[in-house]
Design goal:
This protein is mostly beta strands. The chain contains 3 helices and 14 strands. The chain is globular and about 45 Å long.
Amino acid sequence: MRIISLNVGLPSAQLSEGRKVITAGAKRPVPRAMLHFGNFEGDGQADQLNHGELEKAVCVYPFDHYPYWNRQLGRDLKPGAFSENLTISGAIETEVCVGDVFQMGEAMVQVSQPRMPCTKLAAKNESKMLPKLIADIGYTGFYMRVFVGGAGGCGRQLRSFSSPPRAHHNSRGEQHHLREVQ
């Protein structure tokens, strides 16, 4: 897998169907950013009930799906169009499993769960049906948790590891054991 684009954004007001909503979905590409346990530097989540936190620190979307959505939506989408932190090539949802561990430069991350698209993504891409279409076709993307923070950037490879580490240290040096991968 290779990182096509690293995208970050902070919560801001956006218009959605004539209403003002707070979202961090307007992510913009950056050449590199430090990855911490909760997210990339310069990134945030407006809805922390459904996004972010340790289990959803990094949102990943395969660039391999972009040609399909370009045809479906009738326009040329740019990396970050699905509000993902990492736009990747070389792996899709059916090729990664919850529990897979990858090294990304200095950082180590683990696939934690599939992503479920929300209505703010629909508004951003001007397609009310987009979350349903994404779920129906299975082009959802996925989330990753962070084992080891570090610098990340475009063009880097995500190198796979065969077995996940079972503990990591937080920014204060405290050890946290992860539940077993099922």
